[in-house]
Amino acid sequence: MSSALDGDVLYISILNYGILGYDLSERRESFSIGLRNGLPVDPLLALMVYDGALWMGFDGSSVWIMDLQTHEIVPLDRQLAQSGAGIPLSVTTLYQDRHNNIWVGSVRAGLVGLKLSPIKAFSLTGKDPEAENVIIDVLASEDGFVYLGTDGSGLWRYNPESGLSCLAGKDGLKITAIADYDSRNLCVATYNRGYFLVDRKNYRFTPFVLKDKATNAEECFNSNSPSLYTLQDGRMLFLAVHTYLYDHRTRRFLKFTDNTDGEGLELRVIGVSGSGTIYAFSDPGIFTIDTETKELNLIYRADPVTGNINTAVYHGGMVWFGTNYGLYSFDPRSSQVQKVQTALFSRVSRLESNGADNLWISADNTLFLSRNGVIEMTGENRGVPANEMMAGACAQDGSVYLGGNAGFVEIGAECYFGDPEDREVALRDPARESLKLPYNYQSLDLSINLVGSDPFERVLYRYMLSGASQITVDSFDQTISLPALKPGHYRLRVSYLKSDGTWSRPQVISNIHINRPWYLSTPMILLYLAVFIVFALIGIDSLSRRRLRALEEALRARDIVFTSKVEAFIEQHIAEPGLSVTELAGHMAMSRATLYYKMNASYGKGVAEVIEEKRMAMAEDLLSSTSFSILDISEKVGYSSPRYFATRFKLLHDGQTPLKYRKAHQ
User: Fold this and answer.
1) DSSP state of 555
2) Which site in 177, 273, 402, 500 is 20 to 30 Å from 74, CA atoms measured?
3) Distance CA 500, CA 171 (A)
4) Based on C-alpha coordinates, what's the Rg of the chain?
5) What is the pTM of this model?
6) Nearest to residue 266, comparing CAs of 325, 223, 224, 204?
7) What is the pLDDT of residues 212-241, one digit of tens each?
8) pLDDT > 90 in the chain, percent
9) 454 contacts: CB under 8 Å, gap ≥ 6
10) DSSP conformation letters of 453-480
11) Contact predicate 175/150, CB 8 Å
């Protein structure tokens, strides 16, 4: 049914039998695997040798991989660790291109491309369709596993070798923080359920009381989101309404003195300096936690210019923090704050660092990397789907794990991108580098190729035509259609948008000359020159204006249809907490990348922001015109919990709570 050659060994699949390996040099069978030895029973239609493994495509069982050394056979989805690649079931062909991408051809599902990437995306729903895919906290544990705290689906574990597994607490448990307690137990903090110790072997949850029952109730059961942090000496910080230091060897709790006028609530530790200073943040500012004097101190207070702090990290001797207005750096030594100037993003939701080189930035549902002062954007072609990250952790090997409202990603320790030098933009047809066209030609299409780019790369190009007419067009299309140009000399230049947000140096790809009519002699030109120029200019200008108006009207009509469908879908599903970019993209029959750019073109913002604005507008109306409770309103506008609704409402209304808003407007 199929064959593949690896050196002198020929692999063939035989219908109703299995796989046979034949050594061509020794003219003998090297091994065989039958259908009853672990192979699917479906017809094996495609074989390919890749990176020391035999890839097998079955008509009905998708793709399986066999290690050529051990002959172990596993399905491809296990190898991908539930990355959501969407491998077809009925596979007919496998192909490796020159970029080491693998292409999977199928009977009904079209063509799927698999690209090697140091970043892997994971969806909890890929493992369990009933799981809540929102991740609140991530711990890269000392035991080598990565633990995930979800917003309603309990505690999960990620094994870099074998993938995801749900451990416990699926019955609506919202885990806000996870920390290493000792070699036997984890400690987890939950929303309105208190603290628990979790046995690493059987993952049994045992309630953990903070100091005493009264203190535990005050800190954990008043819609607080407590967090945890384990110090290097094994002691732990419990951070909620107040901050406590706990030594599990002596079982003593020590309460910190709050020198912040009550602003040091629900702190989250963001790092420790070389001198041992512990930095933390919350909405109002940046804090230090002194474990010697047991004091909390405010070292930076957020202001209306920078906005409330969404996230922060201690990186390279500086505290970096993100707000709705951008990315900022704070120098603890000089107390100076500086905004990072970039046009790539505005709202920053999560920061994470794996050392002095890489600062990962989640902003506007997209992931960015700041390395050596250069910020560049990642994307789906690099393994990063749209996701608003809310939690992160760095493992001992330097790998970074980020979790958000659409699963989590694993970023390799050596992962960095860069496009330091401009790549060449070339015409697909070199014969068109110099063109001479008759005056009466109708149209001209020129196709380009970005040399060295891979098939998954989506690049924005800028086409610039100079000469008798000036045209500038920004497009993701690698083909530009030029209108009928009047006689003269033209030069077409092209640049592309690099991953760091800058345009490459414009490159000339074609010189175009439009000839004059042959029948126009010099005396005729001299006689009718004035008339010809007037009519030519009027005609070309009129034609260009009509085409431009028609294009504008068509684009305007398309935008109205697009925004109407978007708003109708959002209003219909606004009460559903699971309303996501993926659902909206599916409803609109477009990819998330296309939806992202359409939303930005129509609204000037991303899908999540539009959804939240609609929810907040509805919430404002209900608060001011009804007597519904905060719980009822949060459910009607699609928030999973009143706490989260109140937090988001306060963040987007300059610190005003829903109750204060109701009193002011009802």
Assistant:
1) H
2) 402
3) 43
4) 30
5) 0.64
6) 224
7) 999 998 888 877 789 999 998 999 999 999
8) 41
9) 99, 101, 115, 381
10) --TT----EEEEEEESS-EEEEES-SEE
11) yes
